[in-house]
Design a protein that fits this description.
Blueprint: H1 14-19, H2 33-44, E1 46-52, E2 55-60, E3 71-77, E4 86-91, E5 96-102, H3 106-112, H4 117-120, E6 124-131, H5 132-139, H6 143-164, H7 177-184, E7 191-199, H8 230-238, H9 244-251, E8 266-268, H10 282-288, E9 301-302, H11 303-313, E10 331-336, E11 339-340, E12 345-350, E13 355-361, H12 365-371, H13 377-380, E14 383-389, H14 391-398, H15 401-423, E15 427-431, H16 435-441, E16 450-458
Parallel strand pairs: 9-11
Antiparallel strand pairs: 1-2, 3-4, 3-6, 4-5, 6-7, 8-13, 10-12, 10-14, 12-13, 14-16, 15-16
Helix pairs in contact: 2-6, 5-6, 6-15, 11-15, 14-15
The structure holds flavin mononucleotide.
The site of flavin mononucleotide (FMN) has 17 residues, from helix 6 and strand 15.
């Protein structure tokens, strides 16, 4: 079923869309086909196309490791204005929905989430899945981390566009994996469900679960031959929830308490005041976004710009990870190269105090370049933001599913940083890194933590056109 090509713009400023999610416990709000199309397109749609010597590359709305786009979106919906109840698969190439099951299967998701309220009252829910081989042919077993990161960046867009569309949306990781897999009839050696995003709210309770038959749809092989990486199947199995009791337990867990140690040498964030914030709409910013390929090493950004990025990206994700809004699993560490108003050096972001604590002063461009896998991007950027987390305490509190949660949260905050940077006409790029060297660089404070994610922010290098060519 083709989705409408012309969808009305929300007109909502990107920063405002990041800052003001619509509460899922508030008034009823049911998306129509226009809203759903906008949310799908600006999360996973094709936004640009480039010709390279080897052929065309189609880039999508959210950043993704290697531009391999292994995250698929499915829609499980009751009747909406313009869309009949069913289970659908989103096809970005055609901007269409492929019908997998006819009828209302929302009750099956309600059951799979042990009656999670946001899912139970949602008129429609988007499911994100990951297809191993699309990413693993290049990155091998590391793909499992990429599942979290790449779902996260996509979710940052999805939450912002839902907020701009006036509908609640929330990240739900608490579900019985096998039940969601059965609903989509996934071949779980190849493709697995990663998270649910209930969209909208309708006060009438959702329906009873329905019988599921196997779909047995034929699939086109991605390659003549695939390599299976057992570590990924094992970690997925070990972090799966098997029963509604396990789901209820997952939801009952407290979030990890933030560290609140007082600091001596810290600088408070100074975000742009409302009237100076850029007003470009969320749609304009998503269309403009694209990872910076070369940063201008001679350029700088201001403390106000950096503060705005940190502030808007870390206001708390609407997610079932936290009992109350505002929790965060990842800690942020920075290497500042050229930010007006900050001495160059390594910093720790004290989120509860909205302050940056100087850990060590100095110009660390060569070190940043090394930490970012010897790439030039982190050495040439104005600031590099490293995400580190105490995996041990997260796994203790959340069980093995905490591992999925911490990667996904990092991707979602990183995705928000991309949007907050591009809203201010700055550049950004996600990066891969040498895990242990990152932890050593930020130690002793980071001792015992694990490196989770890295984003470089700066000003893109604008090459002057060459004379006579
Ligand atoms: C988590 C993550 C890690 C990435 N790592 C690198 C990297 O190490 N080097 C690089 O040049 N680009 C990196 N990228 C950028 C991707 O290559 C880029 O997002 C992808 O090509 C899609 O292009 P776009 O972001 O311009 O839409 C990364 C992106 C993400 C989301």
């Amino acid at each position: 079923m083709p989705l409408p090509r012309e969808v009305s713009q929300t007109g909502v400023a990107a920063l405002s869309a990041l800052a003001h999610p619509v509460s899922s416990s508030g008034a009823d709000s049911v998306p129509d086909l226009q809203d759903l199309t906008r949310i799908l397109y600006f999360s996973a749609g094709i936004t640009k196309q480039r010709t390279y010597p080897g052929g065309e590359i189609y880039f999508r709305a959210a950043a993704c490791t290697g531009a391999l786009y292994e995250i698929e979106l499915y829609v499980v919906t009751g009747d909406l204005s313009g869309l009949k109840a069913g289970v659908y698969h989103f096809n970005p190439a055609e901007v269409s929905l492929g019908l997998l099951r006819k009828g209302d299967f929302c009750g099956n998701l309600s059951k799979a989430t042990a009656m999670e309220p946001a899912v139970t009252y949602a008129p429609t829910t988007i499911i994100c899945t990951g297809t191993y081989w699309r990413n693993a042919w290049k990155y091998q077993a590391r793909t499992y981390r990429h599942f979290g990161w790449d779902t996260g960046t996509l979710l940052a867009n999805m939450l912002a566009v839902s907020a701009a569309s006036g509908v609640p949306a929330e990240i739900v990781l608490g579900f019985v994996d096998a039940e969601v897999g059965r609903l989509l009839d996934l071949d779980t050696r190849h493709e697995v469900s990663l998270c649910l995003v209930p969209i909208g709210r309708r006060s009438e309770i959702s329906r009873a679960p329905r019988e599921l038959s196997a779909l047995d749809l034929e699939t086109i092989p991605l390659s003549q031959r695939e390599v299976e990486y057992p570590a990924m199947l094992q970690i997925h199995e070990a972090s799966s929830l098997k029963s509604k009791e396990e789901v209820a337990q997952w939801r009952g867990r407290q979030h990890v308490l933030p560290s609140t140690t007082a600091t001596h040498d810290s600088i408070r964030l100074q975000p742009l005041p409302d009237e100076q914030q850029p007003k470009d709409t969320i749609e304009q910013v998503i269309l403009r976004r694209g990872s910076t390929r070369t940063f201008d090493r001679t350029a700088s950004i201001t403390l106000a710009q950096l503060s705005t990025i940190l502030d808007f990206a870390t206001r708390g994700l609407p997610a079932d990870l936290f009992e109350s809004p505002g929790g965060q699993l990842n800690d942020l560490y920075l290497i500042v190269h050229s930010v007006n108003g900050l001495k160059p050096g390594a910093y720790f972001f004290r989120r509860e105090q909205s302050a940056l604590e100087l850990l060590k002063e100095g110009q660390f461009r060569p070190e940043a370049c090394h930490l970012g896998l010897e790439q030039e991007l982190p050495g040439d950027a104005c600031v590099d933001i490293f995400f580190l987390a105490n995996l041990e305490s997260i796994l203790e509190r959340y069980g093995n599913r905490g591992y999925r949660a911490v990667q996904l949260e990092a991707g979602a905050i990183g995705g928000r940083m991309y949007l907050a940077a591009y809203a201010q006409r700055l550049g950004a790029s996600g990066l891969t890194f040498f895990d242990d060297d990152v932890v050593n660089f930020f130690s002793p404070l980071a001792k015992g933590k694990s490196a989770i994610f890295l984003l470089a922010i700066g000003r893109p290098l604008i090459r002057k056109p060459q004379q006579g060519t």
